Amino acid sequence: MFRRLLVAFDGSAHAGAALAVAIRLVQVTHGRLTVLTVMPESTLWWGVACEVPGDLGALDRSNERACQTMLSRAVSAIPADVPATTLLRRGSAIAAILAEAGNHDLIVMGSRRHGELRSLLLGSVSRAVLHASPVPVLVVGHDAGEDAPPRQPEIDFHVSA
Prior knowledge:
Among the domains are: 34-91, no CATH class; 92-145, 3-Layer(aba) Sandwich (Rossmann fold). Helix 4 packs parallel to helix 6 (125-132). Strand 1, helix 1 (13-29) and strand 2 (32-39) form a beta-alpha-beta unit. The N and C termini lie close together (10 Å). The chain has helices at 13-29, 44-49, 56-76, 93-101, 116-122, 125-132; strands spanning 4-8, 32-39, 84-90, 106-110, 137-140. It is globular. The protein is built from 6 helices and 5 strands, in the order βαβααβαβααβ. The longest helix is centred in the middle third of the chain and has 21 residues, at 56-76. It is of the alpha/beta class.
């Protein structure tokens, strides 16, 4: 039974669809939800790309505020009767998700469904987690364009006691 669910949340429509599926699963199983956001480590290259001066401390604080805001928005979508915890980690998303995996029964995450070749070239967090996770992983996909909202998943779970 999946009662302790970990949702990898990056603020994308795909992650929102994964969160919606996880909420429904937790409601059915009377479980608990953990929403994890991973903030990449700031580097001077990232600061240059974002046209930010070399003050990485300020960049880190700004990114942390943005991630906290994103987590707050995610939590506001969770019904009050669903127990939920939020986690903000730094570093590699893959490493952070896998580090939390052992504390949960299921990982739920979104995927942009880049396809085989594009995933090989760009990398895929969901693919890496799927192959390395010690617990089951539910990947919620999305076929439409990046800007299109994901289809609302139709979910009907039946749990026998």
